[in-house]
Amino acid sequence: MTTPVTAVELFVYPVKSARGVAKARVRVGASGFECDRQWMLVDAQGTFLSQRTHPQLTRIVPEITDDDLVLHAAGVPVLRVPLDNRGEPLPVRVWKDACVGVDQGAAAHEWASRVLGQAVRLVRAAPDMERAANVKFAGTTPAPLGFADGYPLLVCNRASLEDLNQRLPWRIPIERFRPNIVVSGLPAWAEDRIDTLALGAVTLRLVKPCTRCSIPSLDPNTGERSTDPLPALRKFRFDRDLRGVTFGENAVIERGTGCEIERGARCRVTFDTLAPPA
Length: 278
Prior knowledge:
The chain is mainly β. It folds into 2 domains: 6-32 and 133-271, Beta Barrel (M1 Pyruvate Kinase, Domain 3); 39-125, no CATH class. The protein is built from 4 helices and 19 strands. A hairpin with a 2-residue loop joins β3 (25-29) and β4. The longest helix is centred in the middle third of the chain and has 11 residues, at 106-116. 40% of the residues are buried.
């Protein structure tokens, strides 16, 4: 009997590069999972901060309630930021993209600056912000973005992590790779050849392997350096065209905006017949 392909884990990352939130059910918005990477911290020049340069971002534990973004961090009081998206517009930058954020106010500025140890501001993606995934890979499918690095969603395969862990001195969790969806029931690295992944009314198109930076070498709970998977991945997962080591697949939303995905949902998979074998 063929093992069913299942979405075994779902994650949302409300604040870019802060801790993720495991979810039992998520709603799919136009730019990815609802509330995913809709907030971020920026420096005095408006440039985004990430764990690459600020590993202490792992201290920030977000929570979404009906009314607020709630931020927790050890040693400081809880911060509550209303979801009404009021505030002054602020020019900000994610990589090469000039974006517009909504400043989340003085209390958020003071709280985040205390946690990060420098002057930073918390911004939310402006409702009318125009930013989209690279059309070279996304193609004609509209793929608007919040503050995610480059694509609305990231899909990872549990079997690929298991294969990787066999090559490492110490096992690492899937959270190191910050996926939105983790699937099981596929052979290791089969995600390389997936064309579409359908979960109920939602259909995703997997468009580009995800090249990895230094973040998977950090403990996702402490920000401290830990087992680095990149040297092992470099031996068999280096993509010459992308000039980087890959793990996971970036995805765009082909249909199903406004619909929900549940953890444990069965997945219908179609493969790209032109893709080389894994």
